[in-house]
User: Fold indole-3-pyruvate monooxygenase from Eragrostis curvula.
Amino acid sequence: LAYTQCSTLMELFVLIVGAGPAGLATAACLSEHSVPYLIVEREDCSASLWRNRAYDRLKLHLAKEFCALPYMPFPADTPTYVPREEFVKYLDRYIERFGIQPRFCTAVESAAYDVGSKRWAITAHDTVTGEEILYEARYLVVATGENGVGRIPEIPGLESFPGETIHSSIYKSGGSYAGQRVLVVGSGNSGMEIAYDLATHGADTSIVIRSPVHIVKRESIRMGMTLVKHMPVTMVDYLIVMINNFVFGDLSRHGIVRPKIGPFLLKAKAGRSPVIDVGTVELIKKEVIKVFRGISEIVGNEVSFEDGKESSFDAIVFATGYKSTANNWLKDDKCMLNDDGLPNKGYPNHWKGENGLYCAGLSRRGLAGIAMDANNIANDIVSVADHVSV
Assistant:
């Protein structure tokens, strides 16, 4: 769209970019402190990832007590592991309760700090009308999320593959793949769950498991998250690994190797979550789902793997993660974010940059991390502001 001339400049106290759970939580926390803000969102709805880019069978991987946003627990009758649709309803109630009114269809093009005015200068445009919009804000919150755009790795010969290739953000259900040979690339929670969904819908399913991975039961993670508040993380890890070794047995002969570092310590150090099993392991043991090592090359329908095996497929689903889009528009961030758009500082100091710049929901700590970020940001803005006024 061609931009039209902007005739007005909006002066703000706080601008929040992104109306996903992180942006909504930050807005609610600011509201509780009577701090004025504006929240902008490039899509035409809040939480677009959850509404439009999540597969049908998705549930929150952690128990609901670890996933509530600030100031609003889940209702008592909510299932322990909240289905996607229930979580979207929860977010809608959250928006209503705190009177959050995002400005939708507003894409931020650039944000740079002006030393003279001590404010952030933000350029955006209305994706419907093409109108250019200028903002000035004392504080800027990056809440665009870790899952901005899907990441598909570069694989030799991928362009020669004649079948369907999609990212997991597009995947909805295995129903349309019945009878097809489908390869899932990626063995995180999404990849493992999509492989299970495909297999139970009648697809001839394979999965690439390239790196060591912790596979656990939901109940053991719930127990571990409770215990870690009272015990050293190394003791909790030892207990969780021992339980899951008993539950699953030795998975190495099925192509699944555990990392040497425990699941909770690995999450804390590298942001890598354990895989919560939904039934995939049993199907792998029965060879209903076949396991391959990394891909070395693709020639037409034929995929060659690093272990020398070859197989042909009709479709490939890439559950290979996402990358943040914040680096596309954020300038002068004083190295708050790295090349992947994630914080350079380690937890728990990742959320605060310089010159009134903050980030929420980029710590790889899920909804619990979002709640902590939102509270920290609101409390910090209140503590450093002389008085809350524009």
